[in-house]
Amino acid sequence: MAWDFHSLFKAHAKDITRYLQRRGTSADLAADFTQDAFTRMMATPPGAQIDNASAYLFRIARNAAINHNRRQQIIPFVEDPEAALLELADEQPSPERIAICRQELRLLNAFFSELTPIQQQIFLLSRIEGRTFADIGKTLQIPQQTAYAHMTRILVRLKLRLDAQAA
Q1: Contact (Cβ atoms closer than 8 angstroms) between residue 64 and residue 36
Q2: CA pair distance 147, 152, nearest whole angstrom
Q3: Do the Cβ atoms of 109 and 103 come closer than 8 Å?
Q4: Structurally, how many domains does the chain consist of?
């Protein structure tokens, strides 16, 4: 639907801003959220079914204010943003963590190579592809219970191997 944004803005902008201010939003933020509501409405796909443009604009602005308030509760105001950035945790793994992960990967690779081909397929289908045991049974032409029993033995062996490695 094509809207006349100029007419919509003239008709509703002040009302939306006042509505947000009555809900506790500052005048500056209310004006920003109002403008954001119109911007988002302009970005709405042409085929979108919007029956009431005014209600849609109010809802967008209200949601923007709510989201802003939630972010403010989660992220407290910081007086020195540069210092705050220095205090953030580095998401890069430490060299020690990288070494541990590589060691675990080598262990898992060695463990996987010890499995029989059918066990390897069951493990991949179950844990990597997320398929059910019924589906695995059909795919591999084995009973569902057999697929489940194989997976149980694989996981028990893997846990024992990891526990032994940790000790």
Answers
A1: yes
A2: 9
A3: no
A4: 2
Tokens of 78: 């910081």
Are 103 and 160 found together in one domain? yes
pLDDT digits (tens, 9 = 90+) for 23-32: 888 899 999 9
Environment class of residue 133 by beta-carbon count within 10 Å: exposed (0-12), middle (13-18) or buried (19+)?
buried
Residues 114 and 133 in one domain: yes
Considering the domain architecture, whether residues 78 and 108 belong to the same structural domain is answered as no
Task: Supply the angle between the helices 5-22 and 53-74 in degrees, to the nearest 10.
Answer: 40
Provide the Cα torsion 104, 105, 108, 114; round to 10°: -130
CATH classification at residue 139: 1.10.10.10
| Among candidate residues 25, 44, 43, the one with its CA nearest the CA of residue 34 | 25
Domain final position from 46, 65, 86:
86
For the stretch 81-117, pLDDT in tens is 677 767 777 778 888 888 988 988 898 899 999 999 9
Residues of the domain holding 44: 5-86
Q: Which residue has the tokens 């443009």?
A: 53
Single-letter residue type at 3: W
d(CA 129, CA 125): 5
Report how far Cα 8 is from the mean position of its chain's Cα atoms. Answer: 35
